[in-house]
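Q: Here's a chain of 265 amino acids. Please give me its 3D structure as tokens.
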Amino acid sequence: MKPALIINGAAGQMGKRIVALAYKSGQFELAGAADYPQHPDMGKDIGTLAGIEPINVPLSAGFPDKADVMIDFSLPQATDAVIDYCAKNSVSLVMGTTGLSDEQLAKLKDASDKIAIVRATNMSLGMNLLFATVGKVAKALGENYDIEIVEAHHRFKKDAPSGTALSLAEAVCKETGRDYPSSLTHGREGKEATRARGTIGMHAIRGGDIVGEHSVIYSTLGETVTLSHSAHTRDTFVRGALRAAEWITTQKPGLYNMQDVLELK
């Protein structure tokens, strides 16, 4: 039997691609498509909105009574209701929304005692390989290498720096013994902006329709090493989310990430 899937944030750019690829994959039963109540397309067929054929699933402000798994790519304002619904109804959760508060992260952790949750700031295979690598490179190069992280996204992205950039920084801090997030320096300006030793520079670029670019720069006197990842299309993240949704339905309650899904650990 196919897992019954709910997509929250279904009328957004990511949500529409999740709808389209989930439907075309034939691996899921689309049980619900939700977005905020005031959305102008509320009630319309989500298949039509996603640019595929009508699939008899309307865009809704609520969730169905039953489902197996939810993929959430919405806004932090919707996160509490998503967690509450999934925990109450034993629905596994793939959480792709970024910019969550500390309280919401704690709520996710508490909910993972009841249901299986995959939380990831980036669901692409390439980026998760980078997550697994950046800290090891920082540790191998040593403290004489300055570390800067630069990320670029489209003009419409609301949170900065990106959740992915923060995850890269967190991986470096964990491997090198730095404190996270106090080791981060967000941009620089002024006449006295000399780099502080041991910090990690964090820089966000917003422009046009950039899907997602991240670079981790390790630089010392005489050389620079750069690890980078560029997403060419949102479908990169969608395929990862769908893979996570299929995987999580067979897991015990717990809080997982994409490295668990992809068996990179």
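Q: Can you summarize the key feature?
A: The radius of gyration is 19 Å.
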